[in-house]
């Protein structure tokens, strides 16, 4: 367990360096010990240049969305999350999409982009694993709002349950494994507002920035327990989730 914890703590430190201080500090170069050729590779097998992780980007044009999706579909996996506003709107919908690959985090504004077809194509790409934390509601609202389906999933909440974690919330898991304490100030924020404030954007980005490293830690734990096959069965069942009134 110590190896796993050290690994994800190192990942989190590197991600924080790349993202910069959420209160306005300048981004720093990532630690090459973590983002080395041995651990940071493209789906096509080519080594990626060390230190290419960028601060979160705001995607609000069709051109930027197409470029983002083209880039992340070259990866083997991507972390995904959604933000809605059910506490503030009678009719809820998705107001923000978060995507993190091993090299970048992006926030997609669905209010500014009418056609999210490229994002739907990412979800159905069988060559790219989509990592969620507690995917159930996300998958249902993606079906409700856009009729999007997702395949090849990894859910860190389900993985944590099967690993026997006593607390399976994202904040608890990241604090335990990564030493990252998520700011809960915007947990019930009104994501329909525009423009979103810098603290809200930082909060949204943090939901996926560390998810790939957490996924790796939990996969190691499940493998050690001989329960990875159980998890894969559960992940496969998530593909059938649909919105029901």
Question: Any descriptors?
Answer:
245 residues, alpha/beta, Nucleotidyltransferase, domain 5, 6-stranded mixed sheet, 9 helices, 42% helix, 11% strand, globular, disordered N terminus
Strand order of the largest sheet: 1-4-3-2-5-6
Instruction: Give the N-to-C terminal Cα separation.
Output: 42 Å
User: What is the CATH level 1 assignment?
Assistant: Alpha Beta
Low-confidence stretches: 1-41, 45-53
Give the fraction of residues assigned to helices: 40-55%
CATH level-four homologous superfamily name: Ribonuclease H-like superfamily/Ribonuclease H
Classify the secondary structure makeup into a structural class.
Answer: alpha/beta
Could you spell the SSE succession in H and E letters? HEHEEEHEHEHHHHH
CATH topology: Nucleotidyltransferase, domain 5
Largest sheet: 6 strands, mixed
Question: What is the domain total for the residues?
Answer: 1
For the secondary structure, the number of strands is: 6
Give a description of the structure:
With 245 residues, the chain is an alpha/beta fold. It has a single domain (2-40, 50-238), classed as Nucleotidyltransferase, domain 5. Helices cover 42% and strands 11% of the residues. The protein contains nine helices and six strands; from the N terminus they run αβαβββαβαβααααα. Helix 1 (2-19) packs antiparallel against helix 8. The protein is globular and about 45 Å long. The N and C termini lie far apart (42 Å). The model is unreliable at 1-41 and 45-53 (pLDDT under 50).
